[in-house]
Amino acid sequence: MLMQVDKKHNTIQPIIEPSKPLLEVNGLKKHFSVRNPLGRLEATVKAVNNVSFQLHEGQTYGLVGESGCGKSTTGRTLLRLIEPTEGEAIFQGRDIFKLRKDEFQKIRQDMQMVFQDPYSSLNPRKRIGHTLEEPLKIHGIGKKSERVDLVMDILEKVGLRMEHFYRYPHEFSGGQRQRIGLARALIVNPKLVICDEPVSALDVSIQSQIINLLRRLQEELKLTYLFIAHDISVVRHISDRIGVMYLGQMVEDAPTDSLISNPLHPYTQALLSAVPIAKPNFQRERIILKGEIPSPMNPPSGCIFHTRCPKAMKICKTDFPIIKEVAPDHFVGCHLY
Ligand code: SF4
Asked: Which residue's CA is minimally distant from atom 5 of ligand 1?
């Protein structure tokens, strides 16, 4: 084990190497073509535009931003539910965008997704046990009797009971359905789980139960999460690192503590100003953003946030701010820095 001198405490400490990225996304773009009835190209929607981030093993990367900012499209593109326009996604050393469909299918077992509304993806006529068996059949895992045991096991892990095996989707509450969604993702023993707004449709008390469950399962099963949500107050509770997206682009990327205590981008500052603080004598100034999010079909020139930014300067209308490291491990794309 490599050691180093800790001058502050005058001791020798082991060097803890950062875990290697399980997923590395570089320059991801997803553009949609809008065509008129004659098939002529009318416009291009830049839903995701040049997004890069790294996801480390056993950690959670939170992707946050208003609805329509491209965070869900990013998640879906990584699972190739929609094909990317450009960029690479290195998962366990291989660029998954370059894999043939049959090659990607083998990796797909290691990458699963949890959706916002599991009810719409559950067959109302199938008992839950049989729905949970399906991914095992698809990936050729276990014989019939073994598959039933695996389903019973995962039901218990997500906080459901064995008798739930025989019930139908309509017999469950919203929180229980999300547990089923989680069970369906985890039953094939994945490494990476992409959680797309997994608690947005739930009551606040149920939200915290599901977040606690996700954290417990992460520890138990050594899972890595990409956690996508519009609510930064939820994302901060589960993420080791947060990426803030606006209009298809990453505007800030930092470890959670650094981003929450010292948000640098005016958009992140506005998102955080809406989060209530549990200190009775502390009042944070609420930043109300003016105007609507511009259309991704016709994004503003220069900094894409300049039409709503309370700190916009002349340069912001013309020059695109490149993302750079302005504090240790804290990246932001803004002309203020
Ligand atoms: Fe605001 Fe200018 Fe920074 Fe964009 S570059 S966030 S408009 S200050």
From this structure: 334
What's the CA gap between 155 and 162, in Å, rounded? 7
> What are the sequence ranges of the domains in the chain?
21-332
pLDDT tens-digit map of 63-118: 999 988 999 999 999 999 999 999 999 999 999 999 999 999 889 999 999 988 87
CATH domain 21-332 topology: Rossmann fold (3.40.50)
Ligand 1 pocket check for 138: Cβ under 6 Å: no
Q: CB 35: neighbour CB atoms within 10 A?
A: 10
With the CA atoms of 285, 325, 295 and 197 taken in that order, what torsion angle do they form, in degrees rounded to the nearest 10? -70
Give the phi and the psi of residue 31 in degrees, each rounded to 5: -110, 140
pTM: predicted TM-score of the whole model, two decimal places: 0.90
Query: CA 310 → CA 17, 120, 305, 306, distances in Å?
Result: 40, 40, 10, 8
Q: Is 327 in the pocket of ligand 1 (CB under 6 A)?
A: no
